[in-house]
Amino acid sequence: MKLSGEALGGKQDYGIDLEVVGVVARQVRRVHDLGVEVALVVGGGNIFRGLAASDQGFDRATGDYMGMLATVINALALQDSLERLGLPARTMTAIQMPQVAEPYIRRRAVRHLEKGRVVLLAAGTGNPYFTTDTTAALRAAELEADVILKATKVDGVYTADPKKDPTARKFERLDYLEALNRGISVMDSTALTFCMDNDIPIVVFDLLKEGNIERAVKGEEIGTLVGGKQ
């Protein structure tokens, strides 16, 4: 599952909304209780966004590294919330910081999942210029995930921003190529192309509605399905 940093910020303009973190943790606990292996890729846009900083003259690589550190803060908050619910969790980072979290090693991550632990994947790919969307696509392929659940603050993919355009139409299903050709912002083009090449379906849905993660895992038709079987 890809969790956007903005979603973890809730209604706040900046920082972590601990109530939202609790909502996410409770939903993940219910999904885990179904016997589902869960890996979470966490964004950091609620704290710092490197691309936005570069638009104001900030060095892009430096900004991206700062954004990676922001994802670690979010991951640790989620880890703590999950553990307080009695669910074992491990934060793994693409940038080594052994005093804080484990380094991401694919085989170790797989082993954690096999042992029933939730794995939180932070610090992106460890490289600047790559988004956490791309991280989610890459890790999904590495860990042989069945699906990417993209949990956001909106209830699916629309033809336009529904907050700005009242005529915006929601897609129930969407093909990878259609999303790419129309420039629809499901994920960035690198991540979307990677998912298409590796046949990884994506479900975009509203994180903040209680129970939606469980509904998505059970295959209920919520949000927008990108790729997958039509």
Describe what this molecule looks like in 3D:
- By secondary structure, the protein is α/β, with parallel strands linked by helices.
- The protein has a single domain, classed as Acetylglutamate kinase-like (Carbamate kinase, 3-Layer(aba) Sandwich).
- The protein has nine helices and eleven strands.
- It has helices at residues 5-8, 18-33, 50-54, 60-84, 106-114, 132-142, 176-182, 189-197, 212-217, and strands at residues 2-3, 39-42, 89-93, 102-103, 118-122, 148-152, 157-158, 170-171, 173-174, 202-206, 224-226.
- A nine-stranded mixed sheet has the order 4-3-5-2-1-6-10-11-9, sandwiched between helices. Strands 7-8 form a two-stranded antiparallel sheet.
- Helix 2 (18-33) packs across helix 4 (60-84).
- It is globular.
- The chain starts with a strand and ends with a strand.
Count every beta strand, where a strand is a DSSP E run of 2 or more residues: 11
CATH fold field value: Carbamate kinase
- What is the typical, i.e. mean, pLDDT? 91
Strand order of the largest sheet: 4-3-5-2-1-6-10-11-9
Which blocks of ≥5 consecutive residues have pLDDT under 50? none
How many structural domains in the coordinates? 1
The description of the largest β-sheet is:
9 strands, mixed
Number of helices: 9
What is the top-level CATH class? Alpha Beta
**SSE arrangement, N to C:** EHHEHHEEHEHEEEEHHEHE
Which of globular, elongated, flat, extended, rod-shaped describes the shape?
Answer: globular
